[in-house]
Input
Amino acid sequence: MENRISVVTIIVADKAAVPQVNACLHEYGGHIIGRLGVPYGEKGVSVICVIMDAPGTTVSALSGKLGMISGVSSKTVTAKV
Output
């Protein structure tokens, strides 16, 4: 399967979930080409955007693992090129 550029957007609403999120990101670190994290104190959430160069199955696996963590939601956008 060929690699594609994808962006995984993660919203962490429960700070207790941060270690699990970081563990997942570390597991897929070889496919991550950039990461931006922004804490939004007024709303009590953190927003993380992760740019990946990976096969679709790898991106889906990461997004699925993140989505199973309580207090975390994630969505993925993949380039068509």
Q: What stands out?
A: The chain has two helices and four strands. The longest helix spans residues 56-67.
